[in-house]
Amino acid sequence: MTTRRPSGQAGVIAVLALRNLRRQLRRTVLTSVMMVLGGALLIFSFALGDGTHENWIESGIRTSSGHVTVEHPEFRRSRKIEDRLGTLVRDEVGRALAAPEIAPHVVATSARLSINGLASSAAGARPAQVLAVDPLDEARFSTLDDQVVDGRYLEPDDRLAVYIGVGLAASLELRLGSRVVVQAQDAHQEIAAQLLRVVGIFESGVPEIDQAVVHMPLTTAGEWLGSGADVTNVGVVLSDSGVVADVSAQLEATLRDPVGRGEARVMGWREANPALAAAIAIDDFGNYLVFGILFLIIAFGIVNTVLMSVLNRHREFGVLRALGLTPGQTGTIVLVEGLTLTAVSGFVGVALGMLATWYFFGDGLDFSALMGEDMTFSGVVIDPVMVPVFRTMRVAQVLTFILAIGVIASVYPAVRAARLDVAEAMKFER
């Protein structure tokens, strides 16, 4: 007496499952088309969504403190000049960013002295956020140097120069060459004033920035405020927002001494800009919700396809059971049908979605007709051209999701087939 090997049984089950998919070709094709289109739409939407989020993040970090920022633990709460990074800590941060495991990810850095002050002219006075920067570093880090509407951005040999927004210029009736006085509390907790001359006026499109932000040379601010080369934060722009967590962890480990002494704190952009992080999380949730509903509909289509094949094959299953198939093997045939249909359709849909998205929309989709030229979101100006971004993690998520839908949708028909009564099935007339 010979015993059929498990591999032989698996082969028979696969052949029977594929034969039924081929026999019910019209139903199989219709369900497959629905799955393929669903998978392609999912890939396109996630690629465009990730590209949109990357656009938001890039715009946000360029106008704030970067993908990663190092600052004094109390500065974000107090915004006082006494809560700043000393020169020694700033030097340690520079050495840490030059480390072999971090440097390849760094695109730009900017050490800033950020203080709240008052800007005044003969026309009046307005609150101002003074950013003292190194002109060359800031030009690589920020986008404000590209948003000049009159004059120029700061240059390395500037001393008593200031670069202001159009809103502040209009409020104080300033133009190129005008003199403006900035006042703030210095390092000795005294009110100090500095006379500057306007060398450039910018327009970012964000009223909060255009009406308050002024850039001045860091060396001038150090002399004016008595802070020397100290800064309030060091911002870092990375090559990809996906490496923020790793770079932050490595940077914190490298700076463990000043961090341990309470002299420095490493923050990712999500912690530094919680409003933007929350907006992206909400948008992600909306995408998951919409596509969950879409694939719930597709799941019912799979259930219909597989279940109808079970109901139309009672006699066939009865014969197979009579020939020796166990209830578990009978259910497995049905399960393999559903999984095969889902897996093939899922892979084809993902491949088609990636190809179509790259071919037709690889250069980006221009939403300026819907958004306008200067759409602001969470305090930053958004580029209306959204470029899709393909991530390996997203492809894996989509395939896993589709396969999970296939498993769930095939379970009930498989259970129905496994519980089939052999005697009743043999009586069934097709």
Notes on the structure:
- β2 and β3 form a beta hairpin.
- The longest helix is centred in the first third of the chain and has 39 residues, at 25-63.
- α1 crosses α14.
- The protein has two domains: 6-60 and 277-427, no CATH class; 65-272, no CATH class.
- Strands 2-3-8-5-7-6 form a six-stranded mixed beta barrel. Strands 11-14 form a two-stranded antiparallel ribbon. A two-stranded antiparallel sheet has the order 12-13.
- It is elongated, with a radius of gyration of 32 Å.
- 55% of the residues lie in helices and 19% in strands.
- The chain has helices spanning 6-23, 25-63, 75-78, 87-97, 135-141, 166-171, 207-210, 218-225, 244-254, 256-260, 269-272, 274-311, 314-322, 327-361, 368-371, 392-418, 422-427; strands at residues 68-71, 106-121, 124-133, 148-151, 161-165, 179-185, 191-202, 213-217, 233-238, 265-268, 365-366, 375-377, 380-382, 385-386.
- The relative contact order is 0.17.
- It is α+β, with helices and mostly antiparallel strands and 430 residues long.
- The two termini are 35 Å apart.
